[in-house]
Amino acid sequence: MQYILEQGVCHGTVFNSCHTSSAAKKNPLTEIQEGELYLCLEHRTVRVREQIINLTSKEFDILALLIANPKRVFTYELITDLVWKEDCDFYSRKAIHNHISKLRKKLRFEPDLPNYIESVAGIGYKFEHL
């Protein structure tokens, strides 16, 4: 996984800027590259194999949360709290499940692409670092 920030190298990871203005350089945001999956927080864009993937706001927020924390398991409750900013209930679990399902379909538009988001039975989801 490659985290791309303003500049420099940290722990073997390459950092670059995803913006060009001097104002943006004062407050850099992050790009993350995982294999053929690319995410830019500044522009709220996602690409797979250089194809732009159109995500809803919640789908993007869920993906950003998971990809920024590879292999960390996020419970339904934590996803609800961090993405929806509210308590988790049965409806929230269904909403998260539906968003994850749609997100998986969008990211895996070709059968040879990996499943980036892994279910952890009865607990939640995690981004599987490839």
Automatic annotation (TrEMBL):
SMART domains: Trans_reg_C. The lineage of its organism: Bacteria, Bacillati, Bacillota, Clostridia, Lachnospirales. The keyword NADP does not apply. It comes from the Bacteria. GO terms for cellular component: cytosol; protein-DNA complex. It comes from Agathobacter rectalis. Keywords: DNA-binding, Phosphoprotein, Transcription, Transcription regulation, Two-component regulatory system. InterPro entries: OmpR/PhoB-type_DNA-bd, Sig_transdc_resp-reg_C-effctor, WalR-like, WH-like_DNA-bd_sf. This is Winged helix family transcriptional regulator. GO terms for molecular function: phosphorelay response regulator activity; transcription cis-regulatory region binding.
